Amino acid sequence: MTARVAYADVEKGTELPPRSFPLTRETLVRYAGASGDFNPIHWNEAFARKVGLEDVIAHGMLTMASAARVVTDWAGDPGALIDYGVRFTRPVVVPNDEQGALIEVSAKVAAKLDDEARTVRVDLTATSKGQKVLGRAQAVVRLA
């Protein structure tokens, strides 16, 4: 597969379609099983509070991967994502209720990096409850 977005069709400032990712305690359990990360801060309220957290929190890598989906869905090929980095700025608290938490992600092309390689840098913003949960979230994408 290759990216379906053409480099020539993208300009600095191009906005990617925003996405929202709901997380529930069930989501966390499923992710723990898939990733092998069974740290009790992701499923045990008493333990999470004992270590100073407000409540159970989402796995950082789950938050990071959710945000990356905005880029890979836009590009049309997960392999088009050639570099990706974030800083974790705030945990995503996932209450034990029917609503859980919501990660809201927006992104835009911040720069065209290399015409020959057809690469762009995409800057992402990820929030939960109106607060930024990822900082310096940037992806480098090779386009068609």
Structure description:
The protein is of the alpha+beta class and 144 residues long. 23% of the residues lie in helices and 37% in strands. It has a five-stranded antiparallel sheet with strand order 1-3-4-5-2. The mean pLDDT is 97.
Shape: elongated
Distance between the termini: 10 Å
Helix content: 10-25%
The count of strands amounts to 5
Main beta sheet:
5 strands, antiparallel
Protein structure class: alpha+beta
Describe the structure using short key phrases.
37% strand, single chain, 3 helices, alpha+beta, five-stranded antiparallel β-sheet, 144 residues
Summarize it:
This protein has 144 residues and is α+β, with helices and mostly antiparallel strands. Helices cover 23% and strands 37% of the residues. A hairpin with a 2-residue loop joins strand 4 (119-128) and strand 5 (131-142).
Summarize the helices and strands and which ones pair or pack.
Elements lengths: L14 E9 L1 H11 L9 H6 L9 H16 L5 E8 L12 E14 L4 E10 L2 E12 L2
